Amino acid sequence: MLLVAFLALHLWASNFNAEWASVMRATVDLSLLALALFHGLNGVRAVAMDFGLGLQARRFLSVTLVMVGFASFLFGVYGLWPLLFAR
Amino acid sequence: MLCCSTLCGCSSLVWLGVLGDSSTLGKIARELFDKSSDLNPRNMRLGMYAWLIQRLSGLYLVLYLLTHITAIAQANCGITTGLQAQVLDVIRNPFYAGGSTAVIFDALGLGIIAFHGLNGIRIVFLDLGFGIRRHRLVFWLSMIIAIAVSAYVIVLGLPMLPRG
User: Which of A76, B89, B92, B145 is most buried, judging by how many CB atoms fall within 10 Å of its CB?
Assistant: First the structure.
């Protein structure tokens, strides 16, 4: 639910309202980034688990997805930085 | 960042080895073609199709999200040359007419996002115990809302398309 609300705010703010307060924008965009990444990668994990993986495979999958998630989050922050914080 | 990607590469190599050991592909084929399987089309009804499409669209949206993050970084940090920019250009221009917009890709993404989100809301309601007896009706209702939302966003976005 939070994801849907943030998604709507993100669409609105990034496309139809350039004059939004910068702090609010940063908050919404960064939380959307984190939430969407967690939701998506956790979904990938759930889909893979439904195929019945062993303990070792599960551990590698989880560790890999966590690292992909952190890397993507950092890359997303890097990409958003000029938009959010540059004057 | 470099350290992170190196670690990712190593663990994905090990991960490939683990996948090769178990017969995941054979399992999928059996799931699909066995007569008594839940995924055999003769056994599938509306809810199962919704479940399947929800999964597939979710997997697509993960790739879309990663592409989106990369594209935003490209736009904001000025990565406009090199292989990455070319790949993104092709991705965002299905008809590759040169310097055109990303209409098809974005419209497809919009529809899939609307489906995934509205169907997800329906699933939350079903988990909470609302509308279980009318889940077909609720499904089509949420699809109508998804189409309406997509249409609304398209109408809002139309003026932003470059003319000509």
Answer: A76
B29 touching A (Cβ < 8 Å) = no
Is A54–B18 a contact, with Cβ atoms under 8 angstroms apart? yes
Per-residue pLDDT of chain B (164 residues; tens, 9 = 90+): 334 444 444 444 454 445 544 567 777 777 677 777 777 777 778 888 888 899 999 999 998 888 888 877 776 776 566 666 666 666 555 444 444 455 666 778 888 999 998 898 888 888 888 878 888 888 899 999 989 988 888 787 666 655 43
Q: Nearest Cα to A67, choosing from B66, B5, B64, B14?
A: B5
Burial category of B84 from C-beta neighbours within 10 Å (exposed 0-12, middle 13-18, buried 19 and up): middle
Please answer yes or no on whether B65 and A11 come within 8 Å at the CB atom: no
Q: Please list every residue in chain B whose beta carbon sits closer than 8 Å to the beta carbon of residue A44.
A: 58-59, 62
